[in-house]
Amino acid sequence: MRLIFLGPPGAGKGTQAARIVAKHGIPQLSTGDMLRAAVSAGTPIGQKAKAVMDAGGLVSDEIVIGIVADRIEEADAKKGFILDGFPRTLAQAEALDRMLESKGVKLDAVLELKVDQSKLVDRIVRRAEEAKAAGQPVRKDDDPEVFKTRLEAYNRDTAVVAPYYEKRGQLTPIDGMQPIDSVSEVIANALSVAAQG
Predict the structure, then answer these.
(1) 171 or 194: which carries more pLDDT confidence?
(2) What is the pLDDT of residues 135-164, one digit of tens each?
(3) How many Å apart are CA 69 and CA 88, to the nearest integer?
(4) Which tens digit of pLDDT belongs to each residue from 96-126?
(5) Do the strands 2-6 and 28-30 form a parallel or antiparallel pair, or are they unpaired?
(6) Coil vs helix vs strand at 10
(7) 48-107 pLDDT, tens per residue?
């Protein structure tokens, strides 16, 4: 099961990905985590990334794709993986396709959590309040101003990725405004259809 999760910040990708990880025993791959792991492991691509980051630069798509390519070769990703928050741009989506094709690997599904963005800020504020009330730390992403900036970046750079996969007949849109369990159920159905396809 090889999946990509798309959708704006706050759409519930992390929650749903965690459920798929638990159910299917495949890793959820976040580019930030993979980047840190490659740097700390000192892999050739990790050393390249470290040099760029130490110089205060942004890691290139080429390096990120290299890190994803290395990571999906690891034993725990042999049965599949979930790419969460990647690809973020059209160039990354195209580079990812080329890399997967070169490995003879196909995506099973690209799931897009569709949400009413005007209600997302309320959702984030509520999530922050619930965390505070439970005595848990509030994620820095849950600051409404930080969140609005992330949402703008998503709409500017990443919203174009879904139509790319739609044109290729790989996109499954999912109503992310439903209750969490309902969203999980719709995803489970979409995945069983993808597995048969």
Answers:
(1) 171
(2) 988 877 777 788 888 888 888 888 899 999
(3) 16
(4) 999 999 999 999 999 999 999 888 888 888 8
(5) unpaired
(6) coil
(7) 988 988 888 888 899 999 999 999 999 999 999 999 878 989 999 999 999 999 999 999
Nearest CA to 168 out of 69, 77, 97, 95 is that of 97
Token couple for 10: 């706050």
Alpha carbon of residue 117 to chain centroid: 18
Contact 110, 170 (CB under 8 A): yes
Helix axes 61-71 and 44-54, enclosed angle (nearest 10): 150
Which strands, in side-by-side order, build the sheet including 81-84?
Answer: 28-30, 81-84, 2-6, 109-114, 171-175
Work out the angle at residue 70's Cα, subtended by the Cα atoms of residues 66 and 73, and round it to the nearest 5 degrees. 145
Q: Which residues, listed in sequence order, are joined to residue 109 by a DSSP beta bridge?
A: 3
Q: Which residues of 53-91 are buried (b: 16+ CB within 10 A; e: fewer)?
A: eeeeeebebebbbbbbbbbbeeeebeebbbbbbbbbbee
